[in-house]
Amino acid sequence: MSMPKGYISENGYATVIKSGGMSYKDIAEEMTRRGFKMKHSAARNILLEAMKKLAVGVCELYDMDNTDIMRVASDPRFQECVASYLEEESII
Amino acid sequence: MSEALQTYFTKVGKYPLLTREQEIDLAKKIEAGDSRAKNKMIQSNLRLAISIAKKYQRKGCSLEDLIQESNMGLIKAVDRFDWRKGFKFSTYAYWWIKQSVRTHVASQASDIKLPAHTRNLLWKMNEMVKEYDDQFGQKPSYDEVSEALGIPTSTLMSMIKCSSQTSLDANIRDRSGGAGRKIAEVVPDNNAASVEDLLDSVKIKGVMRSALRTLTSREENIIRLRFGIGDSSEQSKGQFILSQNEVKEIRRIAK
User: Fold this and answer.
1) Closest CA to B53 of B31, B83, B77, B74
2) Per-residue pLDDT tens for B77-87?
3) What pTM was estimated for this model as a whole?
4) Which of A24, A71, B11, B57 is deepest in the core (most CB within 10 A)?
5) How near does any CA of chain B get to the CA of A68, in Å?
6) ipTM associated with this complex
7) Measured between alpha carbons, how far is A21 from B227 in angstroms, rounded to an integer?
8) Where do the domains of chain B lie, and which CATH numbers do they carry?
């Protein structure tokens, strides 16, 4: 999904390459290789859906509106926190 | 005073002091390479070494160490004494002993090694503060001290910081004069998380745990790939644990 012209990300992007993560294109290729045919945009949408699921609980905890869920889910700081939490806890 | 030190003082007290003629006589023999004469000269002046060492007792070093250093200075003085100059040995030795002890005090009294010129500046600063206090009845400001010494205030502050360090294991004296807790116990940890943060963290972890259970296997795998969680080697990437539905789907695609 391309960003609108002139879009400036408020908080940058979650740094994934440095931590050994993959780009959406690579994820799509990897998942396709495993039988889940998808484009990079689908990989991104699935990741955002997952982040939304995780953000719901956090928004409820802090009495935030439902409209904030998407904002929190796509916030790179939230995504990095989720990643470091998952890595620490080795939950998944 | 320790028993060993007392014994040493008693022993040293037994060596007689030398007359000027005896000093010259011994100095000549030392020049000729007589080691017994050298020993006698050293032994006869050990009391001088002790008296100088005692002056530096309250500078943060043990008296035993100071006497040791003092004696080293005395040996150096014996080696370099020139009787032809006409001075008494004690006059000459005094400066060597003092120099040796002061060097030791300067290097041992502080955990932070300071260059000689910095130590000199600190000494000047202390003298200046004392004089100012005597004259005006109050201590000078940092700006006044730095101006008097001709150094920037920032340098002065760094010097003061370096010269006044305290051990974290030192006891804090309470009002009654008794030793209370140690300094390390009362130094705040500015990096430590607050209680509110810790509680929030526990709550968020609980929320995350329950939310993670709702993720599908595909979502889980994409998060794992996206953030490089777990092994990122090619070998391990081929060892994903797939759900039963995914296995069925793969089988369906394969047919």
Assistant:
1) B74
2) 999 999 999 89
3) 0.41
4) A24
5) 17
6) 0.81
7) 4
8) 3-108 (1.20.120.1810), 112-164 (1.10.10), 202-254 (no CATH)
